[in-house]
Amino acid sequence: MPIYGNWRGIEHPASGFPPPVDAFDAACMRHDFCTASPGSDQPCDLAFVGELHDIAARVGYLPRQLQWAEYLIRVKAGGPAGGMPMPSPGDAFGLLSSIATPCW
Q: What's the first-to-final CA gap in the chain, in angstroms?
């Protein structure tokens, strides 16, 4: 189920190692490789969210698909107990609107 580029999505990519389409997709690829290694995913999740924000600060935006992926990773990482702030209620509304609104 692709969400963004060649690397963001459940079981995506299905096979092979396609090149990332941009810096965001490269961050997704690094996150996938990191979480595939043994151990906790929390350090990988923290690094991924930090990298997304760094790239977004450089280019001036964070793609909508990655905004809600970040939301889900924050929830998965356990919020403050996992070292990552929980999403605010406004983030949840943004998630719902991004799912309900087509991206084209």
A: 17
10 Å Cβ neighbour count for 57? 10
> Per-residue DSSP letters for 23-85?
HHHHHHHHHHHHHHSSS-SHHHHHHHHHHHHHHHHHHS---HHHHHHHHHHHHHTTGGGGTSP
Query: 37 and 31 in contact (C-beta within 8 Å)?
Result: no
pLDDT in tens, 18-41: 999 999 999 999 999 999 999 988
What would the pLDDT profile of 60-79 be if each residue is shown by its tens digit? Answer: 988 888 887 888 887 777 66
**C-alpha torsion angle, residues 66, 71, 76, 77 (rounded to 10):** 90
